[in-house]
Structure prediction request, 90 residues.
Amino acid sequence: MQVLVRDNNVDQALRVLKKKMQREGIFREMKQRKAFEKPSERKTREKAEAVRRARKAARKQAQREGLLPAPKRAVRSPRAMAARPAAPRP
Prediction:
């Protein structure tokens, strides 16, 4: 995993790194590996994760087919947009 530090802004790079690690599930895996997990608990957890993934896939498929309404998009406030300047285009 790689994060670029721009203008010596380490705080922003750390935020980006944490967000990437969160998306990849690294924090969840670290928490799981902290203590031993019994094989029966592992099977139960993995089965629940598979069910969750299957439901999510079915929900997305139903949204694509128009059977369910699409989720509402979050509207960014003008204040939040002003606080974050636009990135320069190359």
Observations:
- The chain has two domains: 1-35, 40-70.
- Helices lie at 10-24, 26-33, 39-65, 78-83.
